[in-house]
Amino acid sequence: MPIAKESTQERDEREKRIILREYRALLRALKERLKKGDKTLVRNAFRIAAEAHKDTRRKSGEPYILHPIAVAQIVVEEIGLGVTSAICALLHDVVEDTEMTLDDISREFGEQCTKIIDGLTKISNVVDLKANSSVQAENFRKILLTLADDPRVILIKLADRLHNMRTMDSMARDKQLKISSETTYIYSPLAHRLGLYEIKSELEDLALKYTQPEVFQEIGRGLKDTKRERTKYINEFIKPLKAELESLGFTFEIFGRPKAIHSIWEKMRTKHVTFEEVYDLFAIRIILDTPKDREKAECWRAYSVVTNNYRPSTERLRDWISVPKGNGYEALHTTVMGPGGKWVEVQIRSKRMNEIAEKGLAAHWRYKEGSAGGKSATESKLDHFLKHLREVLNNPDTDALEFLDDFKLDLFVDEIYIYTPKGEMRVLPKNATALDFAFDVHSALGARCIGAKVNHKLVPLSHVLKTGDQVEVITSAKQKPSEDWLSFVTTGKAKSRIKYYLKEEKREIGEEGKAILQRKLSHMGLSITPVNINELCLLYKKPSMLDLFYGIAVGTIELKEIKDRFKVLGDRLIPIEAERKDTQPTDDTTRQDLKPAKGAELIIFGESSDKILYKLAPCCQPIPGDDVFGFVSSGEGLKIHRVDCPNAQQLMARYGQRIVKVKWAMNKEISFLSGIRLTGLDDVGVAQKITRVISEMLTMNMRSLALDSKDGIFTGEIKVFVHDRSELDILCQKLSELDGVTKVERIEPTEASQ
Ligand code: MN
Predict the structure, then answer these.
(1) What angle is formed at CA 479 by the lines to CA 476 and CA 485, rounded to 5 degrees?
(2) In the chain, fewer beta carbons within 10 Å around the N or the C end?
(3) pLDDT at position 308, please?
(4) Strand pairing partners for 429?
(5) How close is the Cα of 115 to the center of ligand 1, in Å?
(6) 599-633 confidence digits (pLDDT tens)
(7) Quick check: helix, strand or coil at residue 667?
(8) pLDDT-based confidence at residue 753 (cuts at 50, 70, 90)
(9) Interatomic CA distance for residues 247 and 239, integer angstroms
(10) In angstroms, what is the C-alpha Rg of the chain?
């Protein structure tokens, strides 16, 4: 505590000593990485920062410069970054808070530092308490954007956040809460994704400390009280392992660590258990000092030492050495039965792997610098993550809030490993579908995906993938993303791309609607103005101009009403209030789905060696099993018609010489879009019942389902991919067996498309 009578001069002296002490500690941490000339640069950065912040103090009263120094220390010691990052950390608040400009930085420290500091400055440090959620989300988006630019930006930002969280005691309670929730919302998931497990864990503990101080203190106290008991058990557990590892000549460390407070709390909360039931959770860690080329074998040797002594749970072996996690984590995990019948998790890794576990991404760079050239599988996975992030972020149409929700999906989930036909591995979140995979490979591939072969077996778009699956995407140039795709993709990338395509499509169609409206209004001596558009949106209950234009284009909005609902005053539509009735909101999607799918969605693929190019006639949409014939058309090659096609007679009569006999090769790899119409008694669960029937027929993929209900009677149209006639017949049979369904029939495309 400062002495009350301390003079300003005395105080300055004392603070100067503290500042210098911290600065020297930073230099010591950097020592081995300082190359010639680096020391001068670091010293300059320190001087500039100290000068720039000399009149500012933190909330706690201490000189502000202690904060950038501490951030630089974290960056170097806890994240393992080098000189450039330390300089940037020292200067991270300089541009934002002082007179110093980026040009000044550039002159002094060069392009690279300037870019990083610019990135850091763009992420607003100030938590604006009044900002609404979309402003916050936009801020997060910026954070992620800078991550995609240069990952060091976000690593320094994480260090900044960590130091702020560590020193938040003097802040106002509302700020503490805001910063804490922001931390759990975005920073700790990011730390997790980047493989910074230690930092992630500390951030979460600190967030808990501020959001739920009682819980935090209670668990903390509990851990303290039970420490002795725990240590005793850990020692007992470790003893035989230690002896055997030593006798085998291993150089190693073995120790036990209790779980972090927040993860104990998570367990208590989600599993509804008391502290007494979880307090003894801990993991045993064995860290081997072994050269890189032998580490895999050594880890497995250590594994067998563990299982010689304790019985392993067969389901709980995790080999993240052969296939590291997407964030770079490598280790062997096993759970064994310890003394007293308690399950204990044991983690085995080399020193190198341990550093990666603690420092994540940054450690990889360090090892990369050491070994010239060549990317490890883990690095390319990290690159892949960043590339993917960049792609999502570059999507100009992304709504910040939506984006964030989608993106967060990718941060915390378990991963599965999927192989391309060429054997290239890709990491996807658990529960990812074939369509997610297609989007992961390339957005254009996703947009055109009609199905996939998983381990050489044909599956629908919605097929959920498992680790080890080999996936080949099947596309059609005529395929387009549809609304229902959103219901079965799980990756942020797929979600945001699909939304983007749908919006684009709506916008294109909307252009027609805009033209129609323009004509209509000009007849009335009016034009498209924001005021008029607003009035029309209100009248037709459309949330946006885009929806209005789209509704006009697809015909769900009748413009006839305008004359009855408005009078014209100058260039303005004035609503005739008294007469305004509630218009029923129209549902575009249902209507649109009721329109027949054009030939566009037909699929032709397969790999038969004697491939004949053909098209399925849109007038009768034949599917395998139908009685068909081929017609050699003048411009479009061979077209396949059903024998009972309404055009068949005419074609055969007039162009007999062009008719060829064709037969279906029964090929389960080809599926065809077909339509079914249902009628029945309205029932709340009818949609679920129908989808269940379809999903029970494993190879089927529903394209769309549109249900309409009136006076207790529903009618529905289903578009579904089937392989052949018999499959369609079985499906119709099953649907007609459903309670309440009175009629099931195949939709004859002719009646719909004409
Ligand atoms: Mn800061």
Answers:
(1) 125
(2) N
(3) 92
(4) 415
(5) 17
(6) 222 233 332 334 456 677 878 877 776 777 777 77
(7) coil
(8) very low
(9) 13
(10) 33
Pairing of strands 741-746, 672-681: antiparallel
Ligand 1 centre and the CA of 68: distance in Å?
A: 6
- Given pLDDT bands bounded at 50, 70 and 90, which one contains residue 592? very low
Asked whether 701 and 451 are in contact (CB, 8 A), the reply is yes
Nearest to 726 by CA among 646, 668, 679: 668
Residues labelled catalytic: 96-97
Please check the confidence at residue 110 and state whether its pLDDT lies above 70: yes
- Provide the token pair at 618: 């849109």
Q: What share of the chain is helix, strand, coil (3-state, %, to 5)?
A: 55, 15, 30
- Provide the terminal-to-terminal Cα distance of the chain, rounded to the nearest Å: 88
Please report, as a single letter, which amino acid is at residue 23.
Y
* Residue keyed to tokens 């007992």: 236
Compute the half-sphere exposure of residue 347: CA atoms within 13 Å on the CB side of its CA: 18
- Are 98 and 49 in contact by the 8 Å Cβ rule? The answer is no
d(CA 39, CA 111): 18
Q: How far, in Å, CA of 625 to CA of 663, rounded?
A: 9
Mean pLDDT of the chain: 78
Contact predicate 466/416, CB 8 Å: yes
CA of 162 to the centre of ligand 1 (A): 10
Question: In order of start, what are the domains of the chain with their CATH numbers?
Answer: 8-196 (1.10.3210.10), 220-359 (3.30.460.10), 501-581 (no CATH), 601-663 (no CATH), 672-746 (3.30.70.260)
Arithmetic mean of pLDDT, 175-180: 83
**Contact of 356 with 374, CB cutoff 8 Å:** no
Q: Are 526 and 532 in contact (CB under 8 A)?
A: yes
Centroid of ligand 1 to alpha carbon of 163 (angstroms): 8
E-only strand ranges, 365-464: 415-419, 425-429, 449-454, 457-459
The confidence score (pLDDT) of residue 731 equals: 85
Query: What's the predicted TM-score (pTM) here?
Result: 0.55
232 to 173, 195, 278, 655: CA distances (angstroms): 40, 31, 17, 93
Q: What are phi and psi of 120, to 5 degrees?
A: -65, -35
For residue 725, give every residue at least 6 positions away whose Cβ sits within 8 Å of its Cβ, in sequence order, or none. Answer: 623, 624, 625, 626
How many Å lie between the centroid of ligand 1 and the Cα of residue 220? 28
Alpha-carbon distance of 66 to 50, in angstroms, equals 9
Rounded to a whole number, what is the largest CA-CA distance in the chain?
113
What is the torsional sign of CA 444, 450, 455, 456?
Answer: negative
CA of 72 to the centre of ligand 1 (A): 10
Residue 260 exposure: Cα atoms within 13 Å on the Cβ side: 16
**232-290 tens-digit pLDDT:** 999 999 999 999 999 999 999 999 988 889 988 888 888 888 888 776 678 899 999 99
- In angstroms, the CA 596 to CA 602 distance is 12
- Residue 565 CA to residue 537 CA, distance in Å, equals 13
Query: Rounded CA gap, 86 and 76, in Å?
Result: 7
Judge contact between 470 and 454, C-beta under 8 A.
yes
Cβ-based burial of 569 (10 A; exposed 0-12, middle 13-18, buried ≥19): exposed
- Alpha-carbon gap, residue 52 to 64, rounded angstroms: 10
Instruction: Give the side-chain half-sphere CA count within 13 A for 267.
Output: 16
How many Å lie between the centroid of ligand 1 and the Cα of residue 160? Answer: 5
Concatenated DSSP letters for 25-49?
Answer: HHHHHHGGG--TTHHHHHHHHHHHH
